[in-house]
Fold:
Amino acid sequence: MTAKVELRRVQTTGGASSIVTLPKSWVVDVGLKPKDFVAMIPQSDMSLLIMPKGEIEHEALSETVIEVKANTERDVVLRDYISKYLAGYDIIKLHFIQRDSMLQSYIKDIIRRVLIGVEIIEESSEKITTQCLSRHSDLPLKKALERMSIIASSMQKDSLKSLVEGDKLLAEEVILRDDEVDRFCHFIVRQLKMVLQNRFMMEEIGLKNPKDCQEYRVIAKSVERAADHAVYISKDVQTFDLDLSDVDLKEVIEIGSLSNTLFEDAMRALFRLDPELAHQTIGRVETISKLEEEITEKLLADGKDVRTIMGLKLILESLRRIAEYGANIAEIALNLTV
Structure:
């Protein structure tokens, strides 16, 4: 169909009802017949979404096939699969040109670990068929984002705790927890892409305006990045044997606590659409940046060994980045309140 504007005059019938005719080309393209119903859905931007009733009630499952050739790298197959998942396909089939049991096992394991609501419904030596069974109304956008942010915040706290206590097992737990954050992020991006393809999905995921899709996608990626930096801190704990004095630990704990609090306040500002809290959150980033500089300068002046300086500098950078991602979220929260 050609996207063009057609002006139609509103007419009155029966003295009370207003009517407007539908463009003939659209009626033909969507297959409407006399006495068929159309669904009319008022939008928050004062527009009116008109859809054939059958498209809402009997929408067919979308399906796609990925052809996996011999010697294809497993990460290439995984990226292709995730791209199809994010695009909103309900059924995704993997067809293996050459049998590869190790690759099939790897793909199945990753699917279960990093994607929400995907189940394997058919499998053979040559084919894996998966279906996304989750109902988006069961896990709407903001609920998924809230759960994702709670996990990311706990990762930040535990990564700092693993640093203070030198607990490498706790650091490993934080790293493994990142899969849960990725699962929610993929699920949220899938929801937002589906809204852009079908505006009827907005109500199901709890979104009021399609213009907010890009904002929430940036928020989801910011939460994911904040969790990634908790992982980086945990990996630094595992890699470096840090020689930290009590003063160093106190200062690192302070900046870590400030960074995590800023992140949590940013999420509160978002969920409450609280402009005052959003402004306060954004304004605290500069304090954390200055603290990072002061601690770094002190490390250099105290003559710590190079390995300790390097490890701690990476950790401080990650703590600052967590705060900056929190500020990004707060800025978007501020935009959404307007």
